[in-house]
Design goal:
By secondary structure, the protein is an alpha/beta fold. The protein folds into three domains: 263 residues, Glycoside hydrolase, family 3, N-terminal domain (TIM Barrel), CATH 3.20.20.300; 195 residues, Rossmann fold (3-Layer(aba) Sandwich), CATH 3.40.50; 114 residues, Immunoglobulin-like (Sandwich), CATH 2.60.40.10. Helices cover 28% and strands 19% of the residues. Helix 17 packs parallel to helix 18. The longest helix is centred in the N-terminal third of the chain and has 17 residues. It is globular and about 85 Å long. The chain binds alpha-D-glucopyranose (GLC). Alpha-D-glucopyranose binds next to loops. The site of alpha-D-glucopyranose has 9 residues, from loops.
């Protein structure tokens, strides 16, 4: 009997061999599909279960699971009980561990996975910062460098890109994604997958679309919390980045710690089977997040690990990270008839497919070459790429009194701030093998660019935001008085950015505010450089400084990048991809919100309208906002049609002019609003952008195309819907300050 399994044709024979007795699965001249089906036919159910088991190596990136020591792990690998290891890195180490797999009965090699979120050894800006560059070419390059270094270190697979929509800065993991917009998030997710995977040669690695799906909607911004949304919200707001990453060819998907429609997503059949496997025709494999199978017991969705294994498998999860539930219970679940061998073969076959695809059966040590590793990691070319990326991620939020750029005859700079000197605050949780000692601090970056300027340093504040240190403040004030300009590096340490780092308070720490107030009294020009893995509430500092430069967490070349911006060697061009709240009470605040039945106007005395009585509805800085050292103006927004036939496309033109005194880059943004629709649509939706360089005084006409794809939305069944009626079109340098026009779709 022959069963057709997507990807594989499983022939229920005991496997085939050629005339020399070499089994088909070991023959490189045969197709991957043939080799997989031959190998499946040879495997016991225990060996198949082993392929679905992933263990951690030298590092726990989750609650310690009582990991056995290496002797036990290696024995399990030799027994064929492990299909993949995570957190095992290095050409030497991976070669040693891989050998244990080759010593197993069938010699099936391991897949090595690792979190390379923004660089392996050369650390790039955090993904959220990188997204603010709106530079898809640079973003793809960054991913390619990460893949080159990772693959040189024996690792085949990264658990990224993270595709979760993030609009709540209380959630520490917003740093991993691409912000609040689905359309931009989708473009960036696809670029990251292409950069990581390339053509899956040995300089590239498997990507992993995570955390599928909707993890960024955690209630209260609290880590590992409950999430839920309507299916229309799921399809229109949360799924687009995952979908784009899958369509870009991502080999794997990781489910999240969250929930959907009352079940943990690890056991959610709608997401994993109906949408991912069937609707999106996903051919790769799904890995659980760290122990997310076992944690279905904590959620109250499974009675024990065997029940969790059954629910995860039947929903569509495949590889089990660190619960060890599948390897323990699949044989009995199959024997009891609760899980079909077809389902197991499909899951195992998808994993084997990529092991063959990467050439691991024929060249199991291809990624574990110490010489290549030494030549690749943190080389000058990669550092240069990291500097380019970091410069493009820095947002100029405020620049008054011509504070910036600093002119090069600045004689004395007072540099203030713990983060400007202590490098351990430069890196976040997800820095793979990056070493902050190899990074460039702001102090070092400034010393390099302002070689003839006296640069004093004072710490200014304690790392602990609860401690206000008057001695540190006094020292900073004294040094400020002796300087021409004060640069004060404040914000949050990179150590509080990432997983398990939710914060209820994302305002600038009071000990830093106290410092700024004293510095302000000196009358010196004050430039605030804000480091953080998330947008913070900056309302209290806008009046205490002349300029605000938001640098996020920039990685290895941090100090050099910031110094290039402050000196004007690079004119900042980044635009925020997450709104900056005016106050904590607004959170979450985001640009693509819905209307209301009682819209508020600028008249703050209105009563019966949707607004806060104590503050504005608007964020301090809106999505898409970022300044330049020059200025840009927009004019002549024109449409090719005012009455568009639905099968046609709409051409949109807008003129942008550099009206300032510096050459610079502008991110021209195009938004739409479907004025009346059967399912509510946001007041604005980003549907196009172009980053353009303009010399001072130069104008360019930017052209965009809007098609049915951009004008339609999803219904709750995930089908695209295009409805006639009025559409508004907006163009500008951010989501707030725009030109507007409209057309009617027939
Ligand atoms: C963590 C994270 C996930 C990561 C995995 C492996 O818990 O949620 O993003 O890829 O475990 O480290």
């Amino acid at each position: 009997m022959i069963k057709y399994i997507p990807h594989l044709l499983v022939v229920l024979l005991a496997g085939c061999s050629d005339s020399t007795g070499i089994p088909d699965y070991k023959r490189a001249d045969l197709s991957v599909e043939k080799r997989v089906s031959d190998l499946l036919a040879r495997m016991t159910i225990e060996e198949k279960a082993g392929q679905l088991n992933q263990l951690a190596g030298d590092l726990n990136t989750g609650p310690a699971s009582g990991n056995a020591d290496w002797q036990h792990k290696l024995q399990s690998i030799k027994n064929g009980e492990v299909g993949s290891m995570l957190n095992v890195v290095g050409a030497g180490k991976t070669k040693q561990v891989q050998q244990a797999a080759l010593d197993s009965r069938l010699g099936i090699p391991l897949l090595f996975g690792y979190d390379v979120m923004h660089g392996y050894k050369t650390i790039f800006p955090i993904p959220l910062a990188e997204a603010c560059s709106w530079d898809l070419v640079q973003i793809e390059k960054n991913a390619t460098v990460a893949a080159n270094e990772t693959s040189a270190a024996g690792v085949h697979w990264t658990f990224g890109p993270m595709c979760d929509i993030g609009n709540d800065p209380r959630w520490g993991r917003v740093m991993e994604g691409a912000g609040e917009d689905p359309w931009l998030g989708a473009q960036i997710a696809a670029s990251r997958v292409k950069g990581l995977q390339g053509n899956l040669d040995s300089n590239h690695i498997l990507a992993c679309v995570k955390h599928y799906a909707g993890y960024g909607a955690v209630e209260g911004g609290k880590e590992y919390a409950y999430t839920d949304m309507s299916r229309t919200e799921l399809w229109n707001k949360y799924l687009p980045p995952y979908k784009a990453a899958v369509e870009a060819g991502a080999a794997t998907v990781m489910n999240g710690f969250n929930t959907f429609e009352g079940t943990p997503v690890t056991g959610n059949k709608y997401l994993l089977d109906e949408v991912l496997k069937n609707k999106w025709n996903f051919k790769g494999f799904v890995v659980s997040d760290w122990n997310s199978i076992g944690e279905m017991v904590n959620w109250g969705y499974a009675t024990d690990n065997k029940d969790a294994a059954l629910k995860a498998l039947t929903a569509g999860s495949m590889m089990d990270m660190e619960t060890k539930a599948l390897v323990a219970h699949i044989p009995e679940l199959v024997k009891e008839g609760k899980v079909s061998m077809q389902l197991i073969d499909d899951a195992v076959g998808r994993i084997l497919y990529y092991k063959f695809k990467l050439g691991l059966f024929d060249h199991p040590f291809a990624y574990s070459d110490e010489q290549r590793e030494a030549a690749t990691l943190l080389n000058e070319k990669h550092r240069k790429e990291a500097l380019e990326a970091a410069k493009r991620s820095i947002i100029l939020l405020q620049n008054e009194n011509n504070a910036l750029p600093l002119n090069n005859n600045t004689k004395k700079i007072a540099l203030v701030g713990l983060f400007a000197q202590d490098k351990k605050h430069l890196f976040d949780f997800w820095v793979a093998q990056g070493d902050f000692n190899e990074a460039v601090s702001l102090q070092e970056g400034l010393q390099s660019v302002f070689a003839n300027t006296a640069i004093s340093y004072s710490q200014g504040y304690e790392a602990d935001r609860a401690i206000s240190n008057q001695t540190l403040i006094a020292d900073a004030v004294n040094k400020a008085r002796a300087a021409d300009v004060v640069i004060v590096n404040i914000g949050l340490s990179g150590e509080i950015a990432g997983e398990a780092r939710s914060l209820s308070d994302v305002s600038i720490p009071q000990n830093q505010i106290a410092l700024l107030k004293e510095l302000k009294k000196t009358g010196k020009k004050i430039i605030a450089v804000v480091s953080s893995g998330r947008p913070m509430i900056l309302s209290e500092i806008t009046g205490l400084c002349d300029a605000i430069v938001y640098t996020w967490i920039l990685g290895t070349e941090s100090g050099n990048a910031i110094a290039q911006v402050l000196s004007g060697k690079y004119n900042p061009s980044a635009k925020t991809v997450m709104s900056f709240p005016l106050a904590a009470g607004q959170i979450p605040v985001y640009y693509n919100h819905f209307r209301t039945g009682r819209p508020a106007t600028a008249n703050s005395n209105e009563v019966w309208v949707s607004r806060y009585r104590d503050i504005s509805n608007e964020p301090l800085y809106p999505f898409g906002f970022g300044l330049s050292y020059t200025t840009f103006s927009y004019s002549n927004l024109e449409l090719s049609d005012s009455a568009l036939q639905r099968e046609n496309t709409l051409r949109v033109k807008v003129t942008v002019t550099n009206t300032g005194s510096f050459d610079g880059e502008e991110v021209v943004q195009l938004y739409i609003n479907d004025v009346t629709s059967s399912i509510l649509r946001p007041v604005k939706e980003l549907k196009g952008f172009k980053k353009v360089f303009l010399e001072k005084g130069e104008s360019k006409v930017m052209e965009f195309i809007l098609t049915n794809e951009e004008l339609s939305f999803y219904d709750g069944a995930g089908n695209k819907v295009l409805e006639e009626g009025w559409f508004e079109v907006f163009a500008g340098g951010n989501s707030r300050d725009v030109l507007t026009t409209r057309f009617r779709l027939k």
